[in-house]
Design a protein that fits this description.
The complex is a heterodimer of chains A (159) and B (392). Chain A is built from five helices and seven strands, in the order αααβαββαββββ. Chain A is α+β, with helices and mostly antiparallel strands and 159 residues long. Chain A has a four-stranded antiparallel sheet with strand order 2-3-1-4. In chain A, strands 5-6 form a two-stranded antiparallel ribbon. In chain A, helix 2 crosses helix 3. Chain B is an alpha/beta fold and 392 residues long. Classes of the chains: A alpha+beta (159), B alpha/beta (392).
Chain lengths: 159, 392
């Protein structure tokens, strides 16, 4: 992968000037490359990775396993696009194995998530079954550990 | 009968008493205990040892693998080292007789010297250099002979400088590239010229290549890749820098069988063997750790780019080092000595860099900045150094 994308994944707020120095190029080049990735749809956004367990009021999240009936033309795409339009669906993946779509769904409460599944997802034409698993604690998200690493305990000066 | 009372100090061997304290130790004492220091003086990777390596080591302890191993190191590790050396350096060392696993490269270097030096033998080594070389040469009853390297050569060692210092008592040529503290590397022509020099003067070469995996440009050019040097080369490498395994204390020597055997004699009596846990960790690193090295190397590479660009931008001439994780900028433009600059930077801006003189007299006018630290710290350090210089 382009090292620029690696750096942006680690810290999307890194100033262009720093990125330019790290990659031994110019700020103009950095800006042009980011713009190109956005235009191509490779970069789809810049978001903070949050430890929501530390927020006073945080959403409930659940992993939903969906089995769906593939369609003659379009396979799973049509129904996936339809499901993806719901704002409650945070993430969605087509999977191999015992089910077809894996969703991460969020809501204000357990009840709200359950209602969303029963009232919005399950009745959809093409949905064969759902299985809901509520997330209890986030240990790691998008490559970021939620608990801090131990502080730097190296000797302050060493040869 | 007269009883002569001695103090404890009187029992210290004279050759040890005469070895000066390390300049870096002095600086460490000044920095230690200060809060909120951004230290660019750490010659140790900031990465955690990759988890799969730690996990393997932990599992081995749980299984009770805590006994002595073969003095030479476990057969599995030595076989893996043979394969690694072949793939990385195009060598053919026999794992049974030509590889010895040591307690860090520090022990490897020590036993190499003690195996080959007779009292008064001279060892050519290049400065600026790792602080341990000259003292260890003295402790092995050798005579360290410093050869200068210069900014105009990007701190590469030249034969012309060596020819000024070689004498009939010279026995060993010691090399360390990629270099601590300068980050300098050798190109192929350099290694060939140094090999010719060693052969011409019938010298043994000890090549400490512990930073070899951290080579960013120009390719890796090892003394081990020169076939005509084989019978007079002791090659040293380790796991500390490449896989961030400093505390595991694991290194190794590759050398022709008679030399390995001689080093083994010392090793078996003073060490028995390297840590069994460390050896298991090392084996895991060799078998499955290539991606880890690549990731760390890329990160160091980017940090190096950032630091060198930043230092040059603020008017401190800094060549682009091709290896290790140090930069060696000149601070002469400030009018301060290395020591003055480092102390004032520490006192006034809480940034620790080691004065170049800690690594040899020809380090005067330079500073060693280690970039084995996170980008946030590096950014802050560069801002503080720039501010410090502006207000001088």
């Amino acid at each position: 992968m382009d090292p620029l994308l690696d750096l942006l994944k680690k810290n999307a707020r890194e100033p262009d000037a720093i990125l330019a120095k790290e990659l031994a190029t110019t700020e103009e080049d950095i800006r042009a490359r980011i713009a190109a990735y956005e235009a191509e749809g490779v970069i789809r956004g810049f978001q903070a990775v949050l430890n929501t367990d530390r927020l006073e009021s945080c959403d409930v999240r659940a992993v939903i396993e969906l089995r769906i009936r593939p369609e003659r033309e379009g396979g799973f795409d049509r129904i996936a696009n339809r499901i993806g339009k719901f704002p409650q669906v945070e993430s969605m993946f087509l999977m191999s194995g015992g089910f077809d779509l894996l969703l991460i769904v969020k809501g204000k409460s357990l009840q709200e998530v359950a209602n969303f599944v029963s009232a919005r997802l399950a009745p959809l034409d093409g949905v064969l079954s759902t299985a809901t698993h509520f997330m209890l604690k986030t240990y790691k998200d998008q490559g970021v550990l939620m608990e801090s690493e131990p502080h730097d305990d190296r000797l302050q000066v060493c040869p | 009968m007269t009883t002569v009372s001695k103090s404890a100090r009187d029992f210290i061997a004279p050759h040890l008493r005469d070895i000066p304290k390390s300049g870096i130790r002095d600086f460490f004492d000044i920095v230690a205990g200060r809060k909120d220091v951004i230290s660019l003086g750490i010659g140790e990777p900031d990465f955690q040892t990759p988890w799969h390596i730690r996990e393997k080591a932990i599992a081995s302890i749980e299984r009770g693998v805590t006994r002595y191993t073969s003095n030479l190191g476990t057969p599995e590790l030595r076989q893996a080292l043979t394969d690694y050396m072949r793939a990385s350096f195009h060598t053919a060392y026999d794992w049974k007789t030509e590889i010895l696993v040591t307690v860090g490269v520090s022990e490897a270097f020590d036993i190499a010297l003690r195996a080959v030096l007779s009292p008064g033998d001279e060892v050519l080594y290049h400065e600026p250099c790792f602080v341990a070389y000259a003292p260890l040469i003295r402790m092995a009853h050798g005579v360290p002979v410093a050869v200068n390297t210069f900014r105009k050569d990007d701190f590469r060692l030249t034969v012309s400088e060596l020819e000024k210092k070689v004498t009939p008592r010279t026995r060993v040529l010691l090399l360390n590239f990629p270099n601590n503290p300068t980050g300098a590397t050798l190109d192929k022509a350099d290694t060939e010229a140094l090999a010719d020099f060693a052969i011409r003067h019938d010298l043994l070469v000890i090549s400490d290549e512990v930073y070899s995996e951290l080579t960013y440009e120009g390719g890796r050019h090892s003394m081990a890749a020169i076939p005509r040097l084989r019978e007079r080369l002791i090659f040293l490498n380790g796991f500390s820098k490449a896989w961030s395994m400093t505390g595991f204390r694991l290194g190794y020597v590759c050398a022709p069988a008679p030399l390995t055997d001689a080093m083994m004699k010392i090793h078996q009596y003073c060490m028995m063997c390297a840590s069994s846990t460390g050896q298991i960790a090392g084996l895991e690193a060799l078998r499955h750790g290539e991606a880890d090295i690549a990731e760390m190397r890329e990160s160091y590479h980017q940090r190096r780019n950032f630091v060198v660009a930043s230092l040059n931008e603020m008017g401190l001439d800094c060549f682009m080092p091709r290896g290790a994780f140090y930069v060696f900028p000149s601070i002469e433009s400030t009018g301060l000595t290395s020591q003055e600059f480092a102390l004032r930077l520490l006192n006034e801006r809480n940034v620790a860099c080691v004065p170049g003189t800690a690594f040899g007299a020809c380090g005067a006018g330079f500073l060693r900045c280690a970039y084995a630290t996170g980008m946030d710290q590096l950014k802050e350090a560069m801002d503080r150094i720039s501010d410090f210089i502006t207000k001088l």
